[in-house]
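Shipment paperwork, digital attachment
Item: protein structure file
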Amino acid sequence: MKIIDGKLIAQEIRKNLKKEIDALKNQEITPGLGIILVGNDPASEIYVRNKMKACKELGLNALLYRFDQTNREEEIIDQIKQLNCDDRIHGILVQSPLPSCFDENHIISYVAKEKDVDGFGLYNLGALISDQEHIIAATPLGILKMLEYEKVDVTGKHVVVVGASLIVGRPMAMLLLNRGATVTIAHDKTLNLAQITQQADILIVAIGQAKFITAEYVKENAIVIDVGTNYIAGHLYGDVDFASVSKKASLITPVPGGVGPMTITMLLSNVVKQAKGKGD
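Attachment content:
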């Protein structure tokens, strides 16, 4: 068993990103990220703080716009429209989840496709499905880079993705399908889930339930990617029971220190890509 060190891989990618950012600054271009934060969800506060910190470390310009539940949806949309027209901003992030009183999909739909660095907009999701990838969602892209770093060729492999969200599961499945993998998508309503996951050469878990996947769900020598972020009594747990599954897996990501650092890094990579004009 080998642990995939997401922090180490992210650091390597960030070194190259820093060089790209410095080169852009020599052209008087500073990559900029506009972050929309609505409400006071504790996890969202942590995620945004980490993103702001990463931007500062690499030299990106990050601007935070806060709204609360007393704001009208139109006010948030107006801010997005302003950022769409702001040449200093190359990427716009609407931190998910929004409070339930807001229509999250409706709000995100106003982010210009060339500034949708989260890759959640209809244009970017549609481009991914049609194998014309434009901007790819940060978490799936980060997982793909981790597999590439470990020299894992997904072609012909059976990948089971547990979780069907628009943030991870669905774009992850399409990304792998575009690279020749055989993909099964399962979720919390899947019957006989263990029978399906036991077939996986690569098992990617994003179901949102702490330690849900135990050893009996995993094939011997499978590669296991844990996307889970479950905070319980101040501690962070993945969706995989690392203690039992690590005894069967050939490669496995830990929580923390696995997928998380890659997500932020690939988000910043998307911003830099747009600043360079590669995704217009």
